[in-house]
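Title: Prediction job returns without error message
Component: structure pipeline
Severity: low
Priority: P3
Assignee: unassigned

Description:
Job completed but the reporter wants confirmation the result is attached to the right record. Sequence as submitted:
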Amino acid sequence: MHRIFQTFIDSLAESSDEQALHLTMEAAASALDLACFAYLALPRASGGDARLISNYPTQWTMHYLQSHYERLDPVISQALSDSEPFEWGPGISSSTLSPQQLELLEDAAFFGIRYGFTIPIHDGRGAIAAVTYASQERGPVFQHCIARNGRVLQLMALYFHAHARRKVVSDRMVDGVALSRRELECLEWAARGKSAWDIGQIVGITRRTAAFHLDNAKAKLGVRSICQAVARLAASRPQVE
């Protein structure tokens, strides 16, 4: 597992575009005997478009995005309300589903997406993304991988999200102030309670460099503390519905 994780981190650092990110996650999932993955970045504003990096069948992902199924998907609904990773699928999920949600899950199952392990990614405003590893069946290999590597998969999801944000999200304005990509990235991780050392580990820079970007963000926003900067960030971002 250590070798797989290290290769994953190294490949993320070298990824320069969305396709490279896709191949990096696909290779890691395959090495862990997980057939499918999906990274879904939720829209910042109501009515916006979600962004998806996935190796699900293209016919399904195009239909999912065009139909804005992220607004109906019961898996995403649970990810919005629960910050802890969870399994889902027939015989696992206990919530009552609407006929439309049941139809969505049946359509997904047709494309081999029947069971899954989903990792919600939240910040101070709530859920902003989710990473799912999915399978046609909840066989012993799938169950063993999730049971043994659940926490590592969660860490991989956070790392992937940190890198994918550079391609998925282009808005770097905070309360009318333009931050650099790295300043915004560090500030968003700080909003999730991460220290400068944590941020450095996640995005692949030193603690001192992370602190430097946070100080620049504070100066640009005209505040003295990280808490004040995070408050400005939260106030400038619409809540995800």
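Comment from assignee: result matches the submitted record. The first strand starts at residue 36 and ends at 41.
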